[in-house]
Amino acid sequence: MDPIVFFVAAYTGVLLVAAAGLHRLGRIDTSPWRSRVLAGHRRAIGAVPWRERSSADWPHSEVPRLYTGIGAVAAAAAAVLPAGLLVAHHRLPEVAVLGPATVLALWFLGKLMATLRS
Predict the structure, then answer these.
(1) H helices of the chain, where?
(2) 3-state secondary structure 51-74
(3) CA-to-CA distance for 89 and 77, rounded, in angstroms?
């Protein structure tokens, strides 16, 4: 069996971990008013956060979609690499290594795309 098969399968795993990390990074709240650093300052001056004064939360509401979109690009690359290599290496042991990697990458890409749609 060609060593490139194992390399691409491992690289697919790395890309999927990166995609999952990016998707999770998008869940972190980026609002400065939710920061612990500003909590003491808000208590000291009695300020009402901008978030409570206005319902427009534009820059912070799109962060999860941005990171999920970037993660979807990584997941798409993770799906295309082993699928493309299956065209050239289609013996049974190579399909046994690249097939599950392709299926896993396509499943995770579908999950990220469903998250982007909702």
Answers:
(1) 3-25, 36-45, 50-53, 58-61, 63-88, 92-117
(2) HHHCCCCHHHHCHHHHHHHHHHHH
(3) 18
> Which residue, among 68, 24, 30, 65, has the nearest Cα to 51 in the 3D structure?
30
Closest to 57 measured CA to CA, from 38, 41, 33: 33
Q: Where are the domains of the chain?
A: 3-31+62-117
Number of Cβ within 10 Å of residue 81's Cβ equals 20
Give tens-digit pLDDT for 50-109.
Answer: 555 444 555 556 788 889 999 999 999 999 999 999 999 889 999 999 999 999 999 999
What pTM did the predictor assign? 0.74
Place of tokens 């046994």: 96
